[in-house]
């Protein structure tokens, strides 16, 4: 059974992607893995509660100051939650690699997250959402009916 469409604020998703890109890029440039770990933690928590990791920046600052306007679209929130969880998983593996002394592997994994978030931010194509829908076709997820 297909997922039910619900209102999803794509502006919040774009802010989330932009912050993920920013934090991961700064982490790489400064060779500061704790910022990658912080990003992974917030993405994991966001996935668990079903919100974009950095929604607080959008809701608390950008939206009230009218710097970013809502962009409500009928969409499947489950696909975005899955995509964020996938990104969080990559960053958790990145941090583990960095802590193990495998810097190249850790920064490559971080770079993958940056590239995928940028692809989504600039083109609107969400690779994690694509995987979610492909796995859904294979009945990988149980319906919550």
Please specify the SSE layout and strand pairing.
Elements: E1 6-9, H1 10-29, H2 33-49, H3 55-62, E2 72-75, H4 77-99, H5 103-123, H6 127-137
Helix pairs in contact: 1-2, 1-3, 1-5, 2-4, 4-5, 4-6
In short:
The chain is mainly alpha-helical and 145 residues long. The protein has helices spanning 10-29, 33-49, 55-62, 77-99, 103-123, 127-137, and strands at residues 6-9, 72-75. The protein has one domain (6-137).
Care to describe what's here?
There is one protein chain. This protein is mostly helical and 145 residues long. The chain has one domain (6-137). Helix content is 69%, strand content 6%. It is built from six helices and two strands. The chain has helices at residues 10-29, 33-49, 55-62, 77-99, 103-123, 127-137; strands at residues 6-9, 72-75. The protein has a two-stranded antiparallel sheet. Helix 1 (10-29) runs antiparallel to helix 5 (103-123). The longest helix has 23 residues, at 77-99. The termini are close together. The mean pLDDT is 94.
